[in-house]
Amino acid sequence: MTSELMIKACTFYTGHLIKTHFCTWKDIAKPRTYEDDILAEKMERAMKYDNFRLQKYVFHHWHSYVKGQIEKRKATLSRIKQIYYSARLIIILIKWREKARQKYKKRQDELLLKHELQLMKWRNKIKFKRSAEEQSSSPESLSEVLLVGEIPQCDISVLPERAVLQIFFYLSLRDVVICGQVCHSWMLMTQTSSLWNGIDFSSVKDMITDKYIVSALQRWRLNVLRLNFHGCLLRVKTLKSVSLCKNLQELNVSDCPTFTDDSMRYISEGCPGVLYLNLSNTTITNRTMRLLPRHFHNLQSLSLAYCKKFTDKGLQYLSLGNGCHKLIYLDLSGCTQITDSAMELLSAKCHYLHILDISGCILLTDQVLEDLQIGCTQLRILKMQYCRLISKEAAEKMSSMVQEQEYSPYDPPSWFGYDSQGEPLTEKQDGTPFQDSDLTMKESTYSSEEEAV
């Protein structure tokens, strides 16, 4: 490196150093002339931004409020329109219904008048025909018959549906089936659903088949409310089809020798709405008694007469859990196995019991009447025929608590089928007439009204 280059480098470095320090000193020493203007400009911009944000915030709330008011107004208008159209539609429907009722009533009156006239003509025809037969030789009677002329037969299919139903309601199941085979129009009238609300198979038990019962229950399963199988000899499969009737309210299977606990299990699972149940003289056991409180919570009437295969434990099941606490009618007549312990628990739970029949329950004592006085305060009718262990004094005391009472301290008659110890009667014993029958019938029935006399 030469001396010249060294001098140039030092000169450049010195000049740059002086320039840098001079500019720094200049900035420090010389006051800023435009600092106030810059601050004022910044403050102005800050105020504008703040005012803008404030306006935006206020406008947003105002916009939301206005929008809500508009929507509320629209909802109010739509509601007013809906109320107006509904009121208008109601007025139209009311006028239409009144006009339809008038037309229907007019048509019904015309039909009734027509059939009354036909019936009068038919009666006159029979009357004149009889008089003509009696006085066949008289020309005057013949002229009167000829004046009547031919009269059209009364067609039941032209009657109003309500009148036809009232006619068919008085017919038995066999007659309804026969009427359905007369003609097509009669068959259609017998297929009315309300006609099959109650089916009585006991009236045709000697001729009806299990296949027809199953098909009828499958067809009308949603309409059947009452079923009567009294004395019917049915198969288990037939009894199982009763569970198809979901709306069943009344069931009578009394004197059915094939009715078992398994049949009751299918029925209880499929028909929980049963209110009236008659199981008298069947072979049910404690299994059935356990099913009743589980499924039939609204059961009001129960008949267990002459059901001797369930025990005290089975009767106690009625008061367990939800139980059959709504029972109004209970028939235990002929149940020779029932004792005071079962009746004590039952009377403590069945507070709505109105009618109780314990006739022929030879093991019951005065303790039963004491329990009934405490638990069953609504009891109105009490039957305790042939309860030899219940004293007359206790029965007289109980008669003041009920409206009607039947009591007899004598041994069960022969037609009960068992003796005073509950043992079945032999043929020899069954054939002998029981003693003091007239006296029993005279003294067995008395009520609180007779005591007052």
From TrEMBL:
Q: Which domain of life is it from?
A: Eukaryota
Which intervals of the chain are annotated as region Disordered?
A: 403-453
Q: Which UniProt keywords apply?
A: Leucine-rich repeat, Ubl conjugation pathway
The UniProt entry's GO CC annotations, sorted and at most eight, read: SCF ubiquitin ligase complex
Q: Ranges for the F-box domain?
A: 153-199
Q: Which residues form a coiled coil?
A: none
Could you tell me which SUPFAM superfamilies the record lists for this protein? Answer: F-box domain (SSF81383), RNI-like (SSF52047)
Q: What is this protein called?
A: F-box and leucine rich repeat protein 13
Q: Can you name the source organism? A: Rhinolophus ferrumequinum
